Amino acid sequence: MAVVVVTDSSASLPAELVADLGILVVPLHVLVDDRALGEGVDDEPIDYTSSTVTTSAPSPGELCAAYERALARSGGDGVVAVHISRQLSATWEAGRQAIRDMDAADRVRLVDSLSAGLGTGLPVLAAARRARAGAALEIVYDAATSAAARGRAFIVVNRTEQLRRGGRLSSAAAFFGTELVTKPILQIVDGRLELREKARTRSKAYAKLVAAAVDAAGEDGATVAVQHLGAPDAADTLTAQLTDLIPDIRELVTAEFGPTLAVHLGPGAVGVLVVPGGCG
């Protein structure tokens, strides 16, 4: 058998990669009025601008069941679970509690991706590819932690109100009004979402986003990902620019932000994720 990699739905990985690499994905939840929708399971329209829409992590019980299913599938070889940053979600902590309740806890490794969206998804890919090649549990775990440590994430949003409302944005950005005159470029640092810099227009914000990603990618090859929410043209333009400017892109992954991140980022958000050295 082989080590099985588990992640949560916020990782935003394309379905074909999930299927090809045998990744087990645990749904996060979007709470709409009195209904809890499973991300990637319950396909219902969501008003991402509504102040009544919130998100929640899977329960320890849900994660325990997923880890046990993955462990059984691995034939005892082990499980590596890679989740959204513990600074942005309770998912990692729920995973830690779940492992405590397992009889074979020594065969499960938990990884904080220090990021979100495809910033989580890229370390998942690094781990899953090692697992498919037959690597041992610790090697698969090291692949995930290495990619997570090297990863850089940059995001442009139209408004910060949803981020502040959800408590995901540091107080450093509190001076922004509800209707932004400037556009913020955000970054994830040590798992926390922070303000990087400002731009006066969206086009200038995108230019700064590209510049930050190119600088982070370095000269020795990188895996690159582009995400968006309802901004496919901007994502296409950024993808073309990154392809021209980053030498030796080893892999390029594109996806929309899933519902749990969309609730906090809002329509029009665009992100670029980079792992210098690639994901194997």
From TrEMBL:
It comes from Nocardia mexicana. SUPFAM superfamilies: DAK1/DegV-like (SSF82549). It comes from the Bacteria. This is DegV family protein with EDD domain. PANTHER family: DEGV DOMAIN-CONTAINING PROTEIN DR_1986-RELATED, FATTY ACID-BINDING PROTEIN TM_1468. InterPro entries: DegV, DegV_C, DegV_domain_contain. Keywords: Lipid-binding. GO terms for molecular function: lipid binding. NCBIfam families: DegV (TIGR00762).
